[in-house]
Amino acid sequence: MVLTSFQNTKCECGHQNAVGTVLCEACGKPLYDDDANNSILEMRYDGVARKSQKASPGLIDSVWNFFSSVKIAVILIVITLVGSSLGTIYPQESQFVNVDASQYYKTTYGTLGHIYYLLGLSHTYESWWFITLLVMIGSSLVICSLDRVLPLYRALHKQKVRKHDQFLKRQRIVYEHELTVDTKQWLHDTEQALRKKRYRITKNDGALMAEKNRFSRWGPYINHIGLIIFLLAVLARSIPGWHMEYYAAFPQGEPRPIPDTPYYLQNDKFTVEYYSDKEMPEQFVKEGRVMPKLFETKATLFRCVSNCDDPVLEPKLEQVTKYDIRVNDPLEYDGILAYQYDFDLTPKLISVKPMLKDQKTGENFGSFDVKMSNTDTQYTVGPYTLELREKYLDFALDEKGTPMTKTQEPNAPAFVFVIKGPNLPESGEPYMYFPLQKDKVRFQEEAINRDIMKKLRIEVASMNDVSISESTSYLNIRKDTAMPFVWIGATISMIGLVMGFYWQHRRIWIRLEDQQLLLGAHTNKNWFGLRNEVARVLQATQLEVDAKAIDRGGNKA
To answer: How far apart are CA 311 and CA 79, in angstroms?
Structure first.
C-alpha cells in the first residue's frame, strides 16, 4: 500500500503512527478502512509502515523501492539462472590452460562453438553482466530484508496486549461468547491450558495475549543473510588466487607450473591396471572391452624458490610433498587439489635438442634445447641468434590456409624462428622447424624454408637428443579459498529455511468485558492447526467449540 496524499495517522486511542501504517501500532485499529464489509485484516508486518511505502519518493527512495520489490528479485534470479545455464553448454575458458579460445571453440564444437565464444558465453561466470546480476540480487536481498525486518521487529517488539474490537473481530479466527462462570477463574484456567501448549502469556487489565514460535518469523531473514554470504563468497572467487579450476595434461617427467601459485606439479610415473577377463562380465569379454581397474599418478609437488618469473633462467624448485593420486583420492596441499580424471599412454614429445649446421661447409655451430612447454624465446648458437616468433604444438592449416594449433598437445609441433647472424639480412630470416620427421615430410619443411635451408639447417643428430614422455596423466587442478564461506552461507540459509518451514508464529488475543469474551487469533501459516489448537484450549475451559465454526476462512495472512 503506497500513500499518495497526506492522511492523518493519529489513532482514536491517541497513538501517533508513522505515515504508511495500516493498523494502529498500539491498539490494532485499522486506520484507512472501516469494518463495513467485515473483511479479514491484512496482517503483514502487523500493518507497520515500510520505507518502500513512502509517499512522493525521491531518487534514492525510487531505487530503494525497485530493489525492495519481491517481484524484481524473482525476475533477477530467473535471469541469473538462465544466464548461468547458458554457461554450462560448453566448457568455460577457465578450465583450460594455454588454449587459444578463439580457435578452440570453433575447432572443437564447430560453428555453434564459435558463436558461443563470440557471444562471450565461454567466460560467463567472469563476465561483467553475470557479476552485475549477482550484485543486484545481493542488493535486492539486503534492501528487501531491511525494508521488512525493521518494521516487523518494531511491530513484534512493542506488541500491546489489549487490542481494539475491530482488530479482534476481523481476524480469520474469531470467537465471541458470554461467560456464565467466574471470569477470573476462567482466565486462569485458559492461561494454564495455553501454557501447556508452550505459549508465552502476557496479561493486562482483563486482556491476555498468548504467543509462541515468534523466532520462526526471522527464518526468511536468516535465510537472506545466508544467501548474502553465499553471494559474497561467489563474488570473492573472482579475486585472483581465490578460485582456480582447470584440466591439464602432465607428461611423465616434466614439472609443470600451476597458474597463479608458486607451485609446480610433476608426473613422476603413471601406472594403470586393467580388469582381467575373469573379473569382467562375460558380455564385456565377448565385446573385447578393456576396462581400467586402477590408474594412479605418482606425483611430486614443488615450490618455486627463485627465478620464478624469469623468462630466461630455469626456475629453482624445492620439493614440498609427494602423493599417489588416484580417482577420488586427490593430492591436497595448501588449498590445492589435484584430481585424477584421465590418462593417455601414447608417447608425447617433451623436448628436442637440435643442432644448427652450415649447409655448405657442414660445420656444427652447436645445439639448443627446445622444450614443448615453457619454450625459451631466444637461443644463441655459435655466431647466430634464434628468436622464437610462433609456436604451434599441434600444427594445422585452417580453411583459409592460415597456420593454427588444433590442440595444446605436442602431436605435431612446429616452431617459427627468426635467425640472425653472418651472411643473413640484418632483420634476419624466418625458419620453420618441425621436430618430428613425419611432420617434416607432411608439411614439406624444405619447401617452406627453401632459401635459408641452402645456408643453414636445424636437425637432431640422433634419437638421444629427443626426450619423450612414456605416458600423460590428465589432472583436474582446483583451488577454492571461498568454498568454506560458500558452505557457511548455505548452512545459515538452510537454518533459516528450517525455521520458517517447520514452525509457525501463533498469537491469541483474549478480551474480557464484564462477562463478554472476545477472542482473535492469527498465524503466519497453518491456519487449520491454529484453529484446532484454539478449539482444544476453549474445550479445556468447558466451552464446547466447533473448530470449523471459529474459522472465518479467507486467503489473507
So the answer is: 44
- Same domain membership, residue 193 and residue 256: no
The CA angle 190-192-197, to the nearest 5 degrees, is: 95
The pLDDT of residue 229: 93
Residue with cell 464484564: 514
In a domain, 486, yes or no: no
227 in a structural domain = no
131 contacts 235 by C-beta, under 8 angstroms = yes
Q: How far, in Å, CA of 509 to CA of 159, rounded?
A: 11
Stretch 86-104: mean pLDDT, rounded? 80
Contact call for residues 93 and 99 (beta carbons, < 8 A):
yes
Both 310 and 381 in one domain: the answer is no
Q: What CA–CA distance (Å, rounded) separates 314 from 255?
A: 12
pTM recorded for the entire structure: 0.68
Cα dihedral 49/51/53/55 (nearest 10): 110
Residue 171 resides in a domain: yes
Query: Quick one: average pLDDT of 457-480?
Result: 86
| pLDDT given at position 91 | 86
What range defines the domain where residue 424 resides?
A: 354-459
- If you count DSSP H runs as helices and E runs as strands, how many of each does the chain have, helices first? 12, 25
Q: Convert the pLDDT of each residue in 234-276 to its tens digit.
A: 888 878 778 888 888 888 888 888 888 899 999 999 988 888 8
Provide the domain count of the chain: 4
Q: Are residues 341 and 476 in the same domain?
A: yes
Q: Is 103 helix (H, G, I), strand (E, B) or coil?
A: helix
pLDDT grade for 557, boundaries at 50, 70 and 90: very low
Instruction: From 475, 484, 477, 488, select the one nearest 237 (Cα to Cα).
Output: 484
User: Which secondary-structure segment (H or E) carries 40?
Assistant: none
Amino acid 7: pLDDT: 55
C-alpha cell of 371?
622444450
Nearest to 535 by CA among 524, 547, 526: 547
365 lies in a domain?
A: yes
Least confident piece of the model among 65-79, 169-183, 309-323: 309-323
| Statement to judge: residues 280 and 367 lie in one domain | no
Q: What is the CA 449 to chain-centroid distance, rounded?
A: 51
- Phi/psi class of residue 181: alpha, beta or left (left: φ > 0; alpha: ψ in -120 to 50)? beta
